[in-house]
């Protein structure tokens, strides 16, 4: 299942519907060389939203209507994405300001299961399934595995599949080695300066 934003960073998608959240977080300009922000150009943003929501719908079995986005919606969606990224980066920081809220309806289906349904229009209709998936991941204990690459020059969102959830780099060979080499060289300079 190809996800345009995540694939460009050569990162495997998170499982199930959480891949939608990861993909939204990866629409940002990141990596080396820097990629373009997929939520800047209206045509590109609409194409990403249509593809990402269709993939979320297939992954979750939830129906999602076409979402219209205006110029103000793109600005709000970028701000929401930035909130998600800050939340993923500062999980235990109670000093962060309150985040945006969107509407989600709870529906009792024919099998007796309660299912959340995204509501709203524009950017809120895109943010609602993202918040549903964050909530599901929090309940399942997988939210803490969706991380931002520790390399500040990168910032790619990745799903940590390590056994003890200790991964810090979206790709150890690309970002981890470069950061470790910089740290090693800094330590050497400090030792030689002493």
Give a nutshell description of this structure:
The protein is mainly alpha-helical. The chain has helices spanning 4-7, 18-25, 42-60, 71-89, 123-140, 172-193, and strands spanning 104-108, 114-118, 146-148, 157-159.
Mean pLDDT: 86
Q: From the alpha-carbon coordinates, what is the Rg to the nearest angstrom?
A: 18 Å
User: Would you tell me the structural class of the helices and strands?
Assistant: mainly alpha
* Number of distinct helices: 6
Order of helices and strands: HHHHEEHEEH
Helix content: 40-55%
Q: What's the number of extended β-strand segments?
A: 4
**Approximate strand percentage:** 5-15%
What's the story with the biggest beta sheet? 2 strands, antiparallel
Unreliable runs? none
Morphology = globular
Descriptive notes:
There is one protein chain. With 194 residues, the chain is mostly helical. It is 46% helix and 8% strand. The protein is globular. The termini are far apart. 34% of the residues are buried. The model has no long low-confidence stretch (mean pLDDT 86).
Characteristic key phrases:
194 residues, mainly alpha, two-stranded antiparallel sheet, 6 helices, globular
Write the layout of secondary structure elements.
Blueprint: H1 4-7, H2 18-25, H3 42-60, H4 71-89, E1 104-108, E2 114-118, H5 123-140, E3 146-148, E4 157-159, H6 172-193
Antiparallel strand pairs: 1-2, 3-4
């Amino acid at each position: 299942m190809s996800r345009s934003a995540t694939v460009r960073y050569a990162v495997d998608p998170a499982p199930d519907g959480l891949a939608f959240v990861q993909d939204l977080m990866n629409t940002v300009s990141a990596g080396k060389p820097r990629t373009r922000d997929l939520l800047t150009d209206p045509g590109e943003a609409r194409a990403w939203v249509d593809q990402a929501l269709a993939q979320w719908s297939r992954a979750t079995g939830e129906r999602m209507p076409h979402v219209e986005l205006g110029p103000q919606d793109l600005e709000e969606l970028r701000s929401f994405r930035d909130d998600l990224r800050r939340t993923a980066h500062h999980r235990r920081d109670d000093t962060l300001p309150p985040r945006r809220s969107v509407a989600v309806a709870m529906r009792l289906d024919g099998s007796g299961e309660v299912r959340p349904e995204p509501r709203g229009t524009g950017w809120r209709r895109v943010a609602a399934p993202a918040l549903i998936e964050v909530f599901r991941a929090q309940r399942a204990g997988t939210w803490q595995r969706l991380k931002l690459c520790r390399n500040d020059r990168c910032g790619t969102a990745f799903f940590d599949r390590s056994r003890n959830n200790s991964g810090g780099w979206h790709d150890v060979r690309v970002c981890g080695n470069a950061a470790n080499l910089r740290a090693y060289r800094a330590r050497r300079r400090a030792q030689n300066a002493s």
